[in-house]
TrEMBL record:
Domain NlpC/P60: 154-285
Family per similarity comment: Belongs to the peptidase C40 family.
Keywords: Hydrolase, Protease, Thiol protease
InterPro entries reported for this sequence: NLP_P60_dom, Papain-like_cys_pep_sf, Peptidase_C40, SH3_16
rRNA-binding as UniProt keyword: no
An example molecular function term from Gene Ontology annotations: cysteine-type peptidase activity
Coiled-coil residue spans: none
Protein name according to UniProt: Gamma-D-glutamyl-L-lysine dipeptidyl-peptidase
GO BP terms in the entry: proteolysis
Amino acid sequence: MPLDPRLTPARPDLADLALRGRVEAARYVAGEPRRVVAPSAPLRRAPSAESGIDTEAVLGDAVTLYEARDGFAWVQLVHDGYVGYLAADSLGPADPAPTHRVAALRTFLYPAPDLKRPARAHLGLGSALVVTGEAGDYLEVPGGYVFAGHCRPVDAVEPDFAGTAERLVGTPYLWGGRTTLGLDCSGLVQLCLEAAGLTCPRDADQQERALGDALPDDASSDDLADLRRGDLVFWRGHVGMMLDASRLIHANGHHMAVAVEPLRTAVARIREKSYGPMTSVRRITPSTGS
């Protein structure tokens, strides 16, 4: 099987030392652990602010750093393996490890434990925090204070991933987006499954191969009965999640937002105007989640 370039830290001039003998490169290096210290950081396919966004990293995400040059860092994200370029100043030391995560859709980082002070930054769902102390209703973290009621211990999970998706209705569509300020279809699925404590690949084709169990005859049949909350519906290049037997939630370019609609409506429109017919429906259970 050829190596997936999205997940392979290899360029003609530089590659991960672990890939020696599998890929050709002028130089091999052992990556160094780092962690994202910015509220969010676009991961680009080239070291340029004009390059398209493939995905996003958020505060606390662990990365492996292979090179930092001219303001960009070439990295691999630890949680899903994606490779690309982040702004070099968005990275900091790998330690200490996060202790808490933001559980609210959005919260603010304040310079003091006082809601009347001007916020320093916006933090989104899933951002990972290193809590160093408490001050009344606030947690002290590097750079300021966050309202404690918006946070949970880092290992806390939200098992109803469809419920997490419902909280995100109306979030604008953003190609490559995986924060509560903007999401694409697979970013929505990844964010919700990771909040449930499940490992999830980044892109729709990767998710279709890796997640859950395929329901029989779903790719070619028009019979959409027997679907359940949390089932993932796939097209070539698109994915959505069932809220019940008939309603689909998905981040999509038609609505330019995370939206809920009847699955049959989505199937007809997508077949005619964009990604063609459904390719599969996959069901995630505790034993089949990745």
